[in-house]
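thought: fold this chain, then report.
action: predict
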Amino acid sequence: MKQVVEHPIIGNITINIRKGLRSVTYRVSTKGVSISTPPEMAHKLFPLSTQRIEWIQNAQTQMESRKVTLLITPEHPLQTLTFRVAFEPRKAQKPLFTARFQESTLTIGYFEQLDLNLQPQQQVVHRIVKLYLKREAEQYLPKRLQQLASTLGYRFSDVKINSARGRWGSCNSKGSINLSCYLMMLPSELIDYVLVHELCHTKEMNHGEPFKKRIRAHFPRFGELDKQLRIHGRRTAALMA
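observation:
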């Protein structure tokens, strides 16, 4: 069961009441503050202690300091793996935005009096970009995954493209691989690293030493690549789509 409680200092807090939990856990993420609790402890959550409120506020402050603002404007162009984003001001007010894809360029037309730096306009721009990221990902990623699998000697059952933000990819025990369309915002080496990472999971499902030995054989610098993924992940998470 899920419910939202408005706290006078913290604001909205999502309460997740779940059977089977043994303890209360607190989480602060880009989606807000949440508390997961077993049913028998739900009535003891409030009032929050002073120490707990300070912990939540500190976590929120740290998250804000790490937040990356991804502006996509004529002054801040975006280049993805397969296309670049360009802008074209128009005198016509309706529609406010248009999109045209040609020769590896996504051209976003916009009413010239709009301030593209403002959040409402950026949300529209980001949604348009996401639409074409998904389209390009569906064309590129399955083919590249098959190329790498054939070259390196792996087999997978199928591949699906999604819009996941929390993870670049996943692989289940049946060899079915899921890949995020946001991979298209990464450099080609990092994309290949994620794809090979998931292919390795067709042989080793966990991240134990056998898995590390396998991924190290393909990418000796895998530790450094993991760090780069985290950096790019923060930038990708700023795409408001």
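thought: worth noting. The domain at 78-237 is CATH 3.30.2010.10 (Zincin-like).
final: tokens above.
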